[in-house]
Amino acid sequence: MYGRKLRYERRRAYERKRNFLILVSGLCLALAFTFLFGSFLSQAEAKESDTIYYKYYTNIEIQPGDTLWDLAEDYMGDQYESRAVYVAEVRQINGIADSDSIVSGQYLIMPYYSAEYK
């Protein structure tokens, strides 16, 4: 009986040790993947922010039905805080008063950003 109990206890100790090692290796593997995946994400974010945008100006002819707000949607891009900020800049560049009145056939200078260097 004593030999049987000893074998049972040894087997249980071996199983506990094996389970503990599996748990520790799983945690180490999870940490390794976390660091590896995190480094890929940080590299991807760094590459995105490395893009340099250049500011350009283009001259456009106003078409019937055009408004400054519609044109802002077409030209402003993500570099401006809001459409209102962009429209204010267009007004300032073109010497337009606070009104939104533009006339068909009139030409406006519109700023825009591009990653392409011209």
Automatic annotation (TrEMBL):
Residues 59-111 form the LysM domain. The chain crosses the membrane at residues 20-41. Keywords: Membrane, Transmembrane, Transmembrane helix. Gene3D superfamilies: LysM domain (3.10.350.10). It comes from the Bacteria. It comes from Laedolimicola intestinihominis. It holds the Pfam family LysM. InterPro entries: LysM (IPR018392), LysM_dom_sf (IPR036779). This is LysM peptidoglycan-binding domain-containing protein. The keyword Ribonucleoprotein does not apply.
